[in-house]
Design goal:
A two-stranded antiparallel sheet has the order 1-2. 13% of the residues are buried. The protein starts with a helix and ends with a helix. The longest helix is centred in the middle third of the chain and has 14 residues. α2 runs antiparallel to α3. It has one domain. The radius of gyration is 14 Å and the shape is globular. The chain is 54% helix and 16% strand.
Length: 90
C-alpha cells in the first residue's frame, strides 16, 4: 500500500535492484527452495532514510512498527525481482 501511495519509493526500490544493491539467492531446503536476500539490512536502513527524505514522518508506516517494514520491503524486492524474468532465472 505504501508503494502505491508513494510511487517515488517504488522507483527507488527498482533502482536499488537495478544497481545490484541487493542479491537474491536460492537456497535448497529439505522440502523445496527458498530465497535469501543479501544486503537487505543495509538496504532497509537506506529505505528508512529515503522514507524520511520523501516526507514520511516517524508516526507513519513504516517507522511506527516494531520491525519498521523490513518484511514488507523484502516481499516487495522479491516480487520486483520475479517480475524481471532474466533476473529471476539467474
Amino acid at each position: 500500500m505504501l508503494l502505491r501511495q508513494r510511487p517515488g519509493l517504488a522507483m527507488w526500490i527498482r533502482k536499488q535492484i537495478a544497481d545490484s544493491r541487493v542479491t537474491v539467492e536460492r537456497i535448497s531446503t529439505g522440502g523445496g527452495v527458498r530465497t535469501r536476500l543479501g544486503g537487505l539490512k543495509q538496504l532497509h536502513f537506506d529505505f528508512l532514510h529515503e522514507c524520511r527524505v520523501q516526507g514520511i514522518i516517524a508516526a507513519e508506516y513504516p517507522s511506527n512498527t516494531e520491525r519498521m517494514g523490513i518484511r514488507a520491503l523484502a516481499q516487495a524486492i522479491r516480487a520486483e525481482c520475479l517480475r524481471d524474468f532474466g533476473r529471476a532465472a539467474s
